[in-house]
Amino acid sequence: MAVNRIPLDDVPMCRFHLRVTAVTTGGMFIDGYILGMIGIALAVWGPQVGMSALWEGLIGASALAGIFLGALVFGVITDRVGRQTMYTADLMVFVVCSALQFFVAAPWQLAVVRLLMGVAIGADYAIGSALLAEFLPRRQRGPLLASLNAVWTVGYVVAFVVGYLMRGLGDDSWRWMLVSSVVPAVIVLSLRLGTPESPRWLAAHGREEEAQQVLRDTFGPDVVLGEAPTRPPKTPIAELFHPRWRRRTAFASLFWFCQVLPYFALFTFAPDVLKALGLSDEFTGGLTLNLFLLAGGVVGVAVMNRLPRRGFVIWSFVVLALSLGVLGVVPAPSTALVIACFAVFAFVVSGAGNLETVYPSELFPTELRATGIGFAAAMSRVGAAVGTFLLPMSIDHLGTQATMLIGTGVVLAGVVASVAWAPETRHLNLAESCGGEPAAPGFPVPATGDA
Fold it and tell me: Which domains, and CATH codes, for the chain?
């Protein structure tokens, strides 16, 4: 009797899918928590030591610079050595560096520790998205990959709430804020142990029998990879600029860059920005905006498979430009207008930000997936680091209105890049999404490509 073989792209959702999604999103929770805590910690520690805007910017940008290095380097390493080893190693760095933050005594020390933490975060962006995308069925791939960014937002918001509640712990409250990331890091590290290697990666590296063994152990004897890789693995970063992939590389990098530059710049220093805009209770205002971030992240997951990827990214940039543009052209805006514009910005940037963990995973084949994700994440963190470093000085020297207009220009650049290069990948399997016919005019069709 013939056996009905089920391709991995079409395997029904099971407990394993939920488990690997949970432990991958756990890493993203920590990423968001680590990045979200620094703003409120600096708001407490900065006045105690008379910290300059320069040092505030350097500390705020240090983790983002580390993400650039980690994503760029470890994306390539992950495509060469596999997903599994790196999947746990980066969590070990989280644990150690989170603890070290408690003992820093000078701004430069905190900047160094957070640079190292950023390297681990950057690695996790490349590793987690690649591994999860390679296990998920196509129907659930969009929402479950989107959940990575949504849970990142949860971590970011939880950090703000925890920091807000810890402000009353005395002069050292900022230390307890920063060291608190040890707790989720230890939990997620213990849960990631035992996660299998990606069968797609194994097959792409000529280890077909090991790939089939992972499939048998995980899903049963009837599940197969489906469309197998047809080319020997190529993982150097230079391959991303081959004519087959360069526009995909440009799009993945630019849309992510244009989303996160104003996002991190504004929300890392949300209390300071809101105070500069005339809001009297900046901490409560910041908490309110973080709740809009959380709501946007949840809604973004819910609509991920209901909206075309291309339309989602284009129109979200349009709304972001309008929300920042209003604050750039209205002199002395009222409290209600400030909160309304920031709430719209927070809700939309968080919802559309879910595309950051979906789109890049769908644009590149297995042998380049972690490298492509890592490169795009690295480029985005150039923007995030630059924005975070310059924002305190921009407000000091140029004023709040000019700063908002600069942010508007950045998101308008995102509109242009998305209109020119965004493909439509919704409902495609990984082989089709990285090599199929694109929706955007002028978008190149790779001659070959596999999942």
Answer: 8-435 (1.20.1250.20)
